[in-house]
UniProtKB/TrEMBL annotation:
Natural source organism: Poecilia reticulata
Coiled-coil ranges per UniProt: none
UniProt-recorded name of the protein: Somatolactin alpha
Lineage, broadest ranks: Eukaryota, Metazoa, Chordata, Craniata, Vertebrata
One GO BP annotation of this record: positive regulation of growth
SUPFAM superfamilies per record: 4-helical cytokines
GO molecular-function terms, A-Z: growth hormone activity; growth hormone receptor binding
C-alpha cells in the first residue's frame, strides 16, 4: 500500500469516525462513587437495547481497526498466514459456545454470562495492546484513537451487562476471573515482526469475539419478543 493510499484511507476513516458516535446512547453505568446506579433505573428492555447498540458499535470499530492495522503493518503473505492459527486466540479455551446449534441450545442465563466472560477476558489484553501500539513508529492517531475507544467502550459494555444480569436473572454476576496472563505480562521483548503479527492476531481474534457478543445479545433480544422464531 502506497503512502498516498494510506493517507487517503486515513482521511476516509476520519470522516466516517464521528458517524459511529452520532445517535449512540451512552452506557456509562457508574456514578461518582463507582456504583452502577445510573443503569439500574433504566427499564430492562431499554437497557438491553443500549447494550446491543454498544456491542454493535464495538464490533464495527473493531472491523475498521483490524483492517487499518493490516493495511499499515502486515505484509500481504503474512495476512494469509494469520488465518492459519499461527497464534492462538486468548479466548480459545473459554467455555463459550461456538457452533450455531450450541448457541441455540444454551439458556438466556448462559447467553448473558458468555457475553460477560468474553468482555472481561478482553479488557486487560486491549489495555496492553493499546500500550504496545503507542510504541510503534509512525502509528497514526486514528489507529491509536480507535484502540483506546474500543478499550474504554468495552469497560462500559461490561457495566451494562452486569446490570442486565441483575435485572433479567435477579442474581449477581459470576466471578469469571478469566485473563490471559501470558498476553498481559510479557517480559520478553519479541522481534518486531513477531510482535506486530501477535498484535494483528489479537485484533483479529477480538473482532471475532466482538461479533459473538453482538450475536448473543441479539439472540437474547429475539427470545424476549419471539421466542420460537429465533435463528
Amino acid at each position: 500500500m502506497t503512502t498516498t493510499s494510506v493517507i487517503q484511507w486515513g482521511l476516509w476513516a476520519l470522516l466516517l469516525w464521528p458517524q459511529h458516535l452520532a445517535g449512540s446512547t451512552p452506557l456509562d453505568c457508574r456514578d461518582d462513587l463507582g456504583n452502577l446506579s445510573r443503569c439500574t433505573s433504566i427499564s430492562q428492555e431499554k437497557l438491553l437495547d443500549r447494550v446491543i447498540h454498544h456491542a454493535e458499535l464495538i464490533y464495527r470499530v473493531s472491523e475498521e481497526l483490524s483492517s487499518l492495522f493490516e493495511e499499515l503493518f502486515i505484509p500481504f503473505p503474512f495476512r494469509l498466514q494469520s488465518n492459519q492459527a499461527a497464534y492462538s486466540c486468548i479466548t480459545k479455551a473459554l467455555p463459550i459456545p461456538s457452533s450455531k446449534s450450541e448457541v441455540q441450545q444454551i439458556s438466556d442465563k448462559w447467553l448473558l454470562h458468555s457475553v460477560l466472560i468474553l468482555v472481561q477476558s478482553w479488557i486487560e489484553p486491549l489495555v496492553y495492546l493499546q500500550m504496545t501500539m503507542e510504541r510503534y513508529d509512525h502509528a497514526p492517531d486514528m489507529l491509536l484513537n480507535k484502540t483506546k475507544w474500543v478499550s474504554e467502550k468495552l469497560s462500559s459494555l461490561e457495566q451494562g451487562v452486569v446490570v442486565l444480569i441483575k435485572k433479567m436473572l435477579d442474581e449477581d454476576t459470576l466471578a469469571t476471573g478469566y485473563s490471559e496472563q501470558g498476553v498481559v505480562q510479557n517480559d520478553v521483548q519479541p522481534e518486531v515482526l513477531e510482535s506486530v503479527l501477535r498484535d494483528y492476531t489479537q485484533l483479529s481474534c477480538f473482532k471475532k469475539d466482538a461479533h459473538k457478543m453482538e450475536t448473543f445479545l441479539k439472540l437474547l433480544k429475539c427470545r424476549q419478543t419471539d421466542k420460537y422464531n429465533c435463528a
